[in-house]
Amino acid sequence: MSAESPVNYTYMGRNMSDLSVNDDSSAFSDCNSDRSGEFPTASSESRRLLIACASENSEDLIVQLVSDLQSCSINEQKQAAMEIRLLAKNKPENRLKIARAGAVKPLIALISSTDPQLQEYGVTAILNLSLCDENKELITSSGAIRPLVRALRTGTPTTKENAACALLRLSQVEEYKAAIGRSGAIPHLVNLLETGSLRGKKDAATALYSLCSVKENKVRAVQAGIMRPLVELMADFISNMVDKAAFVMNELVRLPEARDAVVEEGGIPVLVEIVEVGSSRQKEIAVGIILKVCEESVVFRAMVAREGAIPPLVALSQSGTKRTKEKAEALLELLRQPRSAS
User: Fold this and answer.
1) Coil, strand, or helix at residue 77?
2) Which of 34, 90, 140, 182 is most buried, most CB within 10 Å of its CB?
3) Phi-psi region of 12 (alpha: psi -120 to 50; beta: other; left: phi over 0)
4) Where are the ARM repeats (predicted)?
């Protein structure tokens, strides 16, 4: 195919070359700091933390908390991890201070704890520290990836969601994407995409989108059965996941095995329905996916035509955006080509 002109839509620094829909809303919302409850009690520790959050001088408290992370008392560890999590969440400048004070390695150790709450606090604190770009290399070189992947598999629902967000943040450094994939994250993210809460599904989709810019992770995702949950989410218009799932699918269908999986999981009727009734952006990306699926397969073209795709494609070729018209016209030309007797 000929090179396509640049477009305006970007996400996490990546240019979405298949889209040009001018829509101010992003298909993805970034995984930001944790959304857990704060200050559950009116304890002296909570009051101390409130004062520290408002203060310009939190270094002394941070040093003490890092020491407490390595305490023999699990309750002291929990309290320290919770306070570090909240300090990093509420004051961005604390993230670098906490990392420089030596918190990263003891927090990573907590991620492997058998205590669910301690593991959750450790994961969430690492997530909040990872929001600072300067901390990502330290977190990764300190061995955080594999414990985060284990937490993604074994943790509480909140732990899994925050582990997915932390892996997303680390994956924003290009050279870490392959390492995250090799550590086994992809199947667990696919499982979260299929079985998680709405927030979990969104976090998993965002992380998978980032990781699947690497070919070997695309292969892992397809092998892990990602197409089934993607097709199911795209078929559910009230889930608010159509765009996210479609962007991930669009990233994957560059692989022949991914195109086969789309068809095997019943994706063609869903994609044609999106072309008929989806939003402007959804229609454009659905046409792009169908075009990739059909380019090298006469059989798939026949399936698309039988699903009634031609009338809505004709309508799009006349009234869609410039790039939607181009994609619709290219797809119509494919569908109208003579088919073999088979």
Assistant:
1) helix
2) 34
3) left
4) 102-144
